[in-house]
Amino acid sequence: GNSVTQMEGPVTLSEEAFLTINCTYTATGYPSLFWYVQYPGEGLQLLLKATKADDKGSNKGFEATYRKETTSFHLEKGSVQVSDSAVYFCALTVEPQHTGTASKLTFGTGTRLQVTL
Amino acid sequence: DAGVIQSPRHEVTEMGQEVTLRCKPISGHNSLFWYRQTMMRGLELLIYFNNNVPIDDSGMPEDRFSAKMPNASFSTLKIQPSEPRDSAVYFCASSHPIRGSRLPGANVLTFGAGSRLTVL
Hints:
The complex is a heterodimer.
Chain A: E1 3-6, E2 11-14, E3 19-21, E4 23-26, E5 32-38, E6 44-50, E7 56-59, E8 62-65, E9 75-77, E10 86-93, E11 106-107, E12 111-116
Parallel strand pairs in A: 2-12
Antiparallel strand pairs in A: 1-4, 3-9, 5-6, 5-10, 7-8, 8-9, 10-11, 10-12
Chain B: E1 5-7, E2 10-13, E3 19-24, E4 31-38, E5 42-50, E6 53-56, E7 65-71, E8 74-79, E9 88-95, E10 110-111, E11 115-119
Parallel strand pairs in B: 2-11
Antiparallel strand pairs in B: 1-3, 3-8, 4-5, 4-9, 5-6, 7-8, 9-10, 9-11
């Protein structure tokens, strides 16, 4: 089956520190990979995605590279801000069975990031 | 677009009562997902629909849970009777039609703000 494993949180960093949140996956077929972010009191929102090996997704200074050889999709940011404090979810989906329809996302357990001044 | 709209935002009820959560997906989206989030179990997919048809309900915990999507713009998740262990935040999400799974917008979910349920 499909699964996503994320590093345990919480991760506590000082502002301007470098961030890495590890994510590895197992999947049948060729998955697309995602990072979603959940700010306090809100639903999840897409941060970035990559659909094939060696693709790099990027947004708001965050990056993640789809590494097929290590089945990983680690999230990185060079300099975090207090406003980045949130829970980050790694997720995957595989090809839908029927064209024109979505397939379900498999989420990791989430990693809470807390950035302090 | 107003995004995915869920109601109620907060619900407090007593054990044994019926609970109905509502979701209005983004217009034009043809896939709808119900998730439950708790501290202990994280984010769990309960059920999802494509074109108003339930595709996978294997995540629905028990017969006490049921979900319907009578039309493209409305879905409900019902718990009857409710129990304290059902206390959680329930999220609805929708996604738009795709012609190819590798396209930029493919499989991107837009989540609602959630319905926080407390069963006493």
